Amino acid sequence: MPPRPWPTGQCEQLEPLVRRVLAPNGSPFTYTGTQTYLVGDSGGVAVIDPGPDVPEHLAALEAAIGDAEVLAICCTHTHRDHSPAAAPLAASRRAPIIGCAPLVLESDEPRADVPFDTDYRPDRVLADCESLSGPDWTLTAVATPGHTSNHLCFALEETKALFTGDHVMGWSTTVVAPPDGDMADYLTSLDRLYGRHDRIYYPAHGPAVTRPRQLVRGMLGHRRQRERQILRLLQQGPKEIAELVPVMYKGVDTRLWPAAGQSVRAHLLDLEQRGSVARSGERWTVST
Question: Order of strands, edge to edge, in the sheet holding 152-156?
């Protein structure tokens, strides 16, 4: 974690068309908090990932927006640290919510900020490659399922910046938690981003990524390394996920082990689908 004080509530100018406001929800799972991005200027803005419905964060967003018209409120996905502020902001600004599809699932994930936003009601769902525009800016949806099945990134066409939500973060690998999180989809989406030529990534958590393709290449390699690690451990004998995590994540904050276990499960389900592993109850083995 970077040293405090963090710039919570401050409006930071990142480039002429992009500003950032950090929400006060920092945690071991969200790093310093959810970063809301404002795209555009006084002629009209889009708000990307409005964040949690927290009064001080909404006040900071209102101050940052000022007298500009809010042309769109865009959510990358509907986890509760990303989309709940969309509804009150839409009401105060009479602005449409445009972005990912609604998605609500029961969840046993081991973190309080992950379950889905049950109140998310978009006025318009953006399909892959569909765009919306304002003065001097165009945002195009890039479908990136994996972290969640409804996850979108948003490409700022004029500057080749990509707002990556939780699909690519600037501080950590992404949790892929079944049943909605899907490792095969996540890797396919990473491959898709690697094939693009974006100049910079602005993630919802962590610093901007200035070498996007290099990072994505490393993330793909890391996930394949995790697959190989799982297979090596299972070659030693059948194991449950709870036995794999302490070995695979030795040295990682134990508070993160339950979330790590979700990603291990996602890897195992992917490997099972490909015929590489099998399971009996909660024990997993290498397929013969």
Answer: 131-134, 137-143, 152-156, 161-165, 200-203
Using DSSP's 3-state secondary structure scheme, residue 91 falls into helix
- Count of alpha carbons within 13 angstroms of residue 10, beta-carbon side: 7
Q: Which CA distances in Å does 61 have to 29, 52, 128?
A: 22, 11, 27
Instruction: Find where tokens 């640290």 sit.
Output: 81
Q: Comparing C-alpha atoms, which of 106, 99, 197, 105 is closest to residue 151?
A: 99
Specify whether the CB–CB gap between 35 and 20 falls below 8 A. yes
Q: What is the pLDDT of residues 53-93, one digit of tens each?
A: 999 999 999 999 999 999 999 999 999 999 999 999 999 99
Mean local confidence (pLDDT), 5-22: 98
Distance, in Å, from the CA atom of 141 to the CA atom of 125, rounded to the nearest integer, reads 10
Strands 124-125 and 98-99: parallel
Closest among 70, 36, 72 to 51, alpha carbons compared: 36
Q: Is 38 left (phi over 0), alpha (psi -120 to 50) or beta?
A: beta
pTM, two decimals, is 0.94
The alpha carbon dihedral of 57, 34, 123, 96 has a sign of positive
DSSP summary character for residue 27: B
Amino acid occupying residue 118? T
Quickly tell me which residue has 């006084």 as its tokens. Answer: 42
Q: In the structure encoding, which two tokens stand for residue 70, read together?
A: 């809010």
